[in-house]
Design goal:
Structural class: alpha/beta
Helix content: 40-55%
Number of helices: 19
Shape: elongated
Order of helices and strands: HHHHHHHEHEEHEHEHEHEHEHEHHHHHEE
Protein name: DNA-protecting protein DprA
Family: Belongs to the DprA/Smf family.
Radius of gyration: 24 Å
CATH topology of the largest domain: Rossmann fold
Mean pLDDT: 88
Oligomer: single chain
Strand content: 5-15%
InterPro entries: DprA, DprA_WH, DrpA_SLOG, RuvA_2-like, WH-like_DNA-bd_sf
Number of strands: 11
CATH architecture of the largest domain: 3-Layer(aba) Sandwich
Low-confidence stretches: 290-300
């Protein structure tokens, strides 16, 4: 019954977290918000329609989507008054009073690090985000992101086995973009889908910046991988700074527009990182607690064992190169190089980039 009342409170139009919390503080329990007269609601800054809604029976405010949510076996609610409400999130300026959950609720109280970035990243950026997420997940961190295209999706994929939290800008019963439906299903196996929006809330532009405050609010820190000026991921990073969280950024080429966001963050005080170890060491006491679970650091001599592939590897950079440039550097014909590049790409040593160019892949950090 209590869940129904919380859902009803969330259905009152325009009643955001600040006024919801004011109601709870005034009346002490969510049930009492619906058991009081209009006069007692004066002075809380409520609109006439909101006061009228609080005079109704809670069940009258529920939608068919709410009923389906309550009856489903794979949905859950985390309320402001629950003992496992995320402690870090509780201390942001406007924490949501109700979280809609699908998946592993225990992820709420694990050490979380957010990874965010461009929706249109380079192949190298995608590979970097996935590698960092995998390595940090193996070290004991739960990876959070926003299930968006690009870096968000790569971060979730990298942390599927270790556990990841996807914070949605829609209702938790709707997946956006729809192309990530299978990814979302995979996340619920070892991770968690989370939203502050009531069931069946469709995507709207204003909801995603609000979603970002939860991504940072849940997390010990935020890592930015490729972001142009004006990127939504920079909003998440700014919110993290305001919330007192650590902000990390991976530098890139000075010629790439996608490096401008991370470079600006670094100028503003974000930590420049080149490996997962850089992040773990900055997290202080947490790093020590996770040390026993941390995988061995990769060899700095990470390179192909095949002599010819090693020669090609040595001739390449982490910035994209045309096959003609690579061939000239390592003394091979384009015909010889073509087969080698294909084989190295299949083995995960390099990645094909736009314009027919290639660059090294960073090893798992």
């Amino acid at each position: 019954m209590t869940d129904r009342i919380w859902l009803a409170l969330s259905r009152i139009p325009g009643l955001g977290p600040v006024r919801q919390r004011a109601l709870l503080e005034r009346f002490g329990a969510v049930e009492r918000c619906f058991q009081t007269g209009a006069e007692a609601l004066q002075g809380l800054g409520l609109q006439v329609a909101q006061i009228a809604a609080l005079q109704k029976e809670p069940a009258d405010l529920l939608t068919p989507a709410d009923q389906r949510w309550l009856e489903s076996a794979d949905t859950d609610l985390c309320r402001w008054t629950d003992v496992d409400y995320p402690p870090l999130l509780r201390h942001i300026p406007d924490p949501p009073l109700l979280l809609y959950l699908r998946g592993q609720r225990a992820r709420l109280n694990q050490a979380i690090l957010a990874i965010v970035g461009s929706r249109s990243p380079t192949a190298t950026g995608m590979a970097t985000a996935e590698a960092f997420a995998r390595s940090l997940g193996e070290a004991g961190l739960t990876i959070s992101s926003g299930l968006a295209l690009g870096i968000d999706a790569a971060a979730h994929r990298g942390a599927l086995d270790s556990g990841t939290v996807a914070v949605l800008g829609t209702g938790a019963d709707l997946i956006y973009p729809r192309s990530h439906l299978q990814l979302a299903r995979s996340i619920t196996t070892h991770g968690l889908l989370l939203s502050e929006q009531p069931p069946h809330t469709a995507p709207r532009s204003g909801l995603f910046p609000r979603r970002n405050r939860i991504i940072s609010g849940l997390s010990l820190g935020v890592l930015v991988v490729e972001a142009a000026e004006g990127s939504g991921s920079l909003i998440t990073a700014r919110l993290a700074m305001e919330q007192g969280r650590e902000v990390f950024a991976i530098p890139g080429s000075i010629h790439s527009p996608l490096s401008r966001g991370p470079h600006r963050l670094i100028r503003d005080g974000a930590k420049l990182v080149e490996s997962a170890a850089d992040i773990l060491s900055e997290l202080g006491p947490l790093y020590g607690a996770l040390q026993s679970h941390r995988p061995a650091a990769p060899s700095t001599e990470w390179q192909p064992e095949d002599p010819t592939q090693a020669k090609v590897w040595a001739a390449m950079d982490f910035d994209p190169l045309a096959p003609e440039q690579i061939a000239k550097r390592c003394g091979l014909t384009l015909t010889e190089l073509s087969a080698i590049l294909l084989d190295m790409e299949l083995q995960g040593y390099l990645v094909a980039c736009p314009g027919g160019r290639f660059c090294r892949l960073l090893p798992a950090p």
